[in-house]
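hey m, so remember when u said the tokens were messed up on ur end? i reran from scratch. heres the input so u can diff it against urs
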Amino acid sequence: MSLTTQLATMLAMIGMGSWLGAALDTYNRFLKRQDRAHWIVFI
């Protein structure tokens, strides 16, 4: 695997992770469900 492919894959993973995290954060903000344990969010 070339260095360019590795860099593109890493950037894609970071971008998708950021997008997924923002989407889940927005979803939980509108849901307003604070009664569950906070460590479940990180799993």
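this time it looks ok to me. The CA atoms of residues 4 and 30 lie 39 Å apart. if urs says something different then somethings off w ur setup not the seq
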